[in-house]
Amino acid sequence: MNTQPPAGSLQANDPCWCGSGRKYKRCHRNTEGRVHPGEISPMRLVPDTIPRPSYADSGVVEHWDEPLVKSPEIIERMRHSGKVAAEVLRLAGEFLEPGKTTDEVDAYVHDLFIERGAYPSTLNYHGYPKSLCTSANEVICHGIPDSRVMLDGDIMNLDVTGFVGGVHGDTNATFCVGDVDEASRELIRITEECTWLGIEAVRPGRPVSDIGRAIEDHAKEHRYGVVKAFIGHGIGEQFHTDIQILHYYDSRSTLEMLPGMTFTIEPMITLGDWRHRMWDDGWTAVTADWQRTAQFEHTVLVTEDGVEVLTGGPGAVSAEAPWNR
Ligand code: MF3
Ligand code: CO
Ligand code: CO
C-alpha cells in the first residue's frame, strides 16, 4: 500500500495511487489533503532495566481503587514524572520538520523516555502500539505514528506520557510544521488559552464543572467547537483513574476539587463542528467535517490555595513557542 499521493496529477479513471485497485475517482480523489493511515512499524522494545506498568506485557489494563487525594510522597514522584514528560514533549516538538515521518518521531520519543529511565506509558496500553500519539490536522487525538510524512503546513499534536517512579505524567501540545496558515495558528493559540483558563479555574472547594465552563466560554467566544467524546482524567499510579474532567459545562460535574487531587486538563477545540468519527484502526479520532482541530494537555495538582502544573515549569514547551511569536 502506498501512503502518500504522488506529486503528479491523476485522471479520474486512472487506478488510484494508493494501490487499492479502484479508480482514482472512486477512491481518494475527494479525500486529498486529508490524513490517511500509513504503515505501522513493529512495536519498539523497552529494556528490562526500566520499571514497567502492569499492562506492558499483556496489553490488559486492570483498574484498582486508587485514592483521589495523593500522599505527599506520591505527589513528589508525580512532580518528577511530570517534569520528564514535559521535557520529552518540548524536545519532540523541536524535532518536527517537513519530510520526517511520524514513525521517526516515535523512535525519537521512545529513546528520550528510556534515556530518562521512563517507560512510554502509551506503549501496549490497551494494545496501543506506539510510544506517543501523533495527531495531524483533522485528527482530534490518539493518532498512531506511522509512515506518513509530515508536510509543510501541517499542525501536529504530540501527546506524550511517561511512567517513572511508579507514576504517570501526561502532557501534549500542538505544533506547527513549517509554514502554517493564519486560521490554524489562531486555532492553536486559542486552544492553548482555553487550556490555561481551565487550569486557572482549579481551586480547592470548587466543583470540577468550573474547569469545563472556563474552557467552553472561551472557545465559544471564538466560535470554535469543543470535542465532547474525550475528556481529562485522574492520573497517578494508573494512567487513567476515575476522575472525569469535561471540557464543557455540565451541572452534573459536581465532584469537589480537594488539595492533593491530580488530573489532566486537555481540551480539544475544533475550527468547525465538534463531532468526531473513528478510523477503522479503533484509535484515531477525526473531526466529522475534516476541519482542523488542536489540543493542549497538562497534568495538574490541586493545592491548598489553587493549582500546581506538574507538567509545566522550566523544561516544558515555552510561551515563546512559534505560534505565540
Ligand atoms: N495521552 C492520552 C491522554 O491524554 C491517552 C493516550 S492512550 C493511547 O489521555 F492508548 F491512545 F495511547
Ligand atoms: Co491525558
Ligand atoms: Co495525553
Please, could you describe this protein's structure?
The chain has 325 residues and is of the alpha+beta class. It has a single domain (72-324), classed as Creatine Amidinohydrolase (Alpha-Beta Complex). The chain contains 4 helices and 15 strands. The strands form 5 sheets. Strands 1, 2, 4 and 5 form a 4-stranded antiparallel β-sheet that branches. It has a 3-stranded antiparallel β-sheet with strand order 3-12-11, with no helix packed on it. A 3-stranded antiparallel β-sheet has the order 6-10-13, with helices on one face. Helix 1 packs antiparallel against helix 2. The longest helix has 24 residues, at 72-95. The mean pLDDT is 95. The structure holds 2-amino-4-trifluoromethylsulfanyl-butyric acid and cobalt (II) ion (2 copies).
